Amino acid sequence: MKIVLIAVGKIKEKFFRDAIDEYSKRLSRYVKLEIISVDDEMTPDGASEGVISEIKRKEGERILAKIKDSYTVCTLEINGKRYTSEGFAEWINNQAISGNSNICFIIGGSLGLHQDVIKRADMHLSFSDMTFPHQLMRVVLLEQIYRAERIINNEPYHK
């Protein structure tokens, strides 16, 4: 199975990069992982709705350009579906069983995702009603994918 993570912006903090590297290494035992960063747009202070919409459109175009037709696309959104760790593992496993061996997770920038990206998604996933920094969300997502793979493979994991 191949997991692709497309995220807006670069990881600036070393501790986030270290955590991402660690989970990437752990996941390499189970899946082929590809992490793609697309450039974010600068948001001016007091940006109007029109400016915000334009920023999301530009970031969305960059995201959509990286998505292959064969990908099952999952966007991370506050209003998405919520799973337990076991339920998330079951969803991932069902994708593999169904022949969807390429899952692409998308994390938007600080303003969220453009509607065109949301429309392209096959699944919308939420980890919480809370908003998280998109850099931290990469770590959380990779940890949950790792946990899911441990569950799928009947290996111990911390509850």
What does this structure look like?
This protein has 159 residues and is of the alpha/beta class. It has a single domain (2-152), classed as SPOUT methyltransferase, trefoil knot domain (Alpha/beta knot). It has 5 helices and 5 strands. It has helices at residues 14-27, 49-66, 85-97, 115-120, 134-152; strands at 2-8, 32-38, 72-81, 102-107, 123-125. The protein has a 5-stranded parallel beta sheet with strand order 2-1-4-3-5.
State the separation between the terminal residues, measured CA to CA: 25 Å
Strand order of the largest sheet: 2-1-4-3-5
Stretches with pLDDT under 50, minimum 5 residues: none
Known CATH architecture:
3-Layer(aba) Sandwich
Count up the domains.
1
CATH classification, class level: Alpha Beta
Helicity range of the residues? Answer: 40-55%
The helix count comes to 5
Question: Brief description of this entry?
Answer:
The protein is an alpha/beta fold and 159 residues long.
Annotation keywords:
159 residues; alpha/beta; Alpha/beta knot; five-stranded parallel beta sheet; 5 helices; 44% helix
Topology of this structure?
Blueprint: E1 2-8, H1 14-27, E2 32-38, H2 49-66, E3 72-81, H3 85-97, E4 102-107, H4 115-120, E5 123-125, H5 134-152
Parallel strand pairs: 1-2, 1-4, 3-4, 3-5
Helix pairs in contact: 1-5, 3-5
